[in-house]
Amino acid sequence: MSDPNSPAVASLHEEQARQRSGESNLQEGLEETFPASDPVSHTSTTTATSSGAADAAEDETETPKVDEALAAVKARYDQSSSDFATDELRALSAELDLIAESAQGMASASGRIARSEVHSLRRTIVRQVRKNPVQSLGLAALVGYVWGMMR
Fold first, then answer.
1. pTM, entire model
2. What is the full per-residue pLDDT of the chain (151 aa) written as tens digits?
3. CB–CB of 9/3 below 8 Å?
4. Cβ neighbour number for residue 4 with a 10 Å cutoff
5. By the 8 A CB rule, do 35 and 41 touch?
6. How far is residue 65's CA from residue 73's CA, in Å, rounded to a whole number?
7. Phi, psi (5° rounding) for residue 84?
8. Angle, vertex CA 144, rays to CA 141 and CA 148, nearest 5
9. Torsion-angle region of residue 43: left (phi > 0), alpha (psi -120 to 50) or beta?
């Protein structure tokens, strides 16, 4: 257990006291500088009011792109549902055509890759047979024997 009168404990208590006093100075400075940060003070501001027509005209001029977008959305929803469905079907048909073309391209590429792999495997087997003919003959006999036993 540490002695309460040790220099380390005394130093710790002094440091904590300094920090506490520093926080109050900081708080006082903030309250003097920024009265709005004081939770006790309450101020209210008054604003001038205007007619609704002037505000609406002002809003339209400030946001022309938003107004255009809203008009486009409104026009699209006002459009008859059959026209909308026809447009959607055309878009889906075009998307299906793109997917079909993509699938066809992948299938032909996969076929070329498979043929290339088969040719590569065949060349490797021929090279191994020419390099070690006796070993290849023994392996072929073993495969034939196992295949015959399975039948």
1. 0.33
2. 555 578 888 888 888 887 777 666 677 776 777 666 555 555 555 555 555 555 555 555 566 677 777 677 667 666 666 676 777 788 888 888 888 999 999 999 999 999 999 999 999 999 999 999 999 999 999 999 999 999 8
3. yes
4. 8
5. yes
6. 12
7. -65, -45
8. 140
9. beta
Residue 8 makes CB contacts below 8 A (sequence gap 6+) with 2
Instruction: Give 80's DSSP letter.
Output: -
For residue 125, give both structure tokens: 């087997």
Contacts of 84 (CB under 8 A, 6+ apart): 76
- Report the C-alpha gap between 143 and 151 in whole angstroms: 13
Cα dihedral sign, 18-20-22-24: negative
User: Is 127 within 8 Å of 135 (Cβ atoms)?
Assistant: no
